[in-house]
Amino acid sequence: MTCTGSCNGNPCDGVDHCDGNGNCIDVYLPSSTVCRKAASGCDIAETCTGESGQCPMDKFEPTTTKCSGTCNDNPCDAQDYCDGNGSCVDKYLPSGAVCGNTKAGPCTIAATCTGDMGFCPPDEYADSSVTCAGTSQGGACDGKDTCDGEGNCVDRFLGGKVVCQKPTGYSRPIYCNGKSATCPVSSFLEGNLREMTADDPTPVQSMLVAVAPSSPMVLLGLVCVVAAAVAMVTMRQRRDELALDDATYKLLATHEDASAAF
């Protein structure tokens, strides 16, 4: 027969019953019965003792127990651990740990963790004082490439005072143009013939020669025209040095015209 013993209303109390001698016997739930569920991954579920109606004191996982905090799966997240009081503590990678893009090149500074949050700060960019290797390399007019402050490497080229091809024969030195890594193409006979100097490139002669080599006579005529042009340009260049008078210069001009007519 059931009755009400001295211990009642507790999580581990069972159904009390009479013992047949006029006494009410307290009955308790068996020791396999959970009387308090685990509240989190850092809490431990308690079970009845089988000898008392009271549920044992709440116990927690030790600080060596791994858990999942509120901040997870971010670049600067580390393994979280219990605090020994039932809570999971977020852990982060130490300050200075690289979390940004390490493959973006020398103009991008990979971000590092702060040590107090799981998120990775944005990458920073190198300023224009940082050198890099652009797409153009090894050209005669290639300069020292630099970053642009926005993560890009900018090709730099040598300017107009840098000789990229020394003079040979009747040719003049060729200078870089600041726009390309390639030394500009130049010849004595061009659509716009220029005598280039490092300080003041000045056009001194303009000639356009279009020849369709159809016979030896045409080629011979071309040779004569080239020879006359060479002589004319050379004499104009050195006229002041040789102090030629006007009469002598006119004679040379007449000779040039006669050669061209041939």
From TrEMBL:
What domain of life?
Eukaryota
Q: Which residues form the signal peptide?
A: none
Question: What organism does the record attribute this protein to?
Answer: Saprolegnia diclina (strain VS20)
Which residue ranges does UniProt annotate as crossing the membrane?
Answer: 217-235
User: Gene3D superfamilies per the record?
Assistant: Disintegrin domain
Recorded protein name is Disintegrin domain-containing protein
* Keyword Transmembrane helix included in the entry's annotation: yes
Q: Which residues form the Disintegrin domain?
A: 5-61
What keywords appear on the UniProt entry?
Membrane, Transmembrane, Transmembrane helix
User: Does Chaperone count among this protein's keywords?
Assistant: no
